[in-house]
Amino acid sequence: MRNHRDPKSGVLLGSLYFRIKQDTTEVVFEKVDKEGQSNMNAFGFLFISIISEVFASSMLKQTNGFKRILPSIGVVVGYGTAFYFLSLTLQSLAIGTAYAIWAGVGTALTAIIGVIFYKELFNRKKLFGILLIIIGVVVLNLAGGGH
Fold first, then answer.
1. Does residue 100 have a pLDDT over 50?
2. In 2-123, which residue ranges form alpha helices assigned H by DSSP?
3. pLDDT tens profile 72-81
4. Smallest Cα–Cα separation from 63: which of 79, 48, 49, 50?
5. N or C: which end of the chain has fewer CB atoms below 10 A?
């Protein structure tokens, strides 16, 4: 792993840049991209996008084929919000990484919601599939990726 100082007072560790952000009372390590911009907003946008997508996917079952108006509105608003915040995420994160996290975490959470709220069966095969999704997301993040 190579380490060197960035002109914007950051440090490159592997494929991640870090800089020290000095506040009046504390020193905080902050993950930044090569231009020195923080990715913290991108991960916040990604979180909102994932939650919105899981909400919309979960509401699909309640729409009864889009015959029920309120759940149908929930689906449209949920997916609209999810894609809007995913597009904001892609301004800072690589598409492969962002989409892997979005799809993987969204799929796993939707499967869990199905078990909890819709009383769907949960067995070893589902658990194994969810674990594979999580492992895949971790591997993609460890592999890094340029933007």
1. yes
2. 40-60, 69-89, 95-117
3. 999 999 999 9
4. 79
5. N
| Per-position b or e across 16-34, b if 16+ CB within 10 A of its CB | ebebeeeeeeeeeeeebbe
**Residue 115: what residue type?**
V
Question: Closest by alpha carbon to 12, among 146, 120, 110?
Answer: 146
The span from the CA of 130 to the CA of 105, in Å, is 9
3-state secondary structure of 116: helix
Residue bearing tokens 């929930």: 74
Tokens of 90: 């892609």
Amino acid identity of 90?
Answer: L
Give the type of residue at 89: T
Query: 98, exposed or middle or buried, with CB in 10 Å at 0-12, 13-18, 19+?
Result: buried
- Retrieve residue 32's tokens: 């930044």
- Tell me: the pLDDT tens digits for 15-30? 444 555 555 454 444 4
Which tokens in the block code for residue 59? 């509401």
Q: Supply 120's token pair.
A: 């769907």
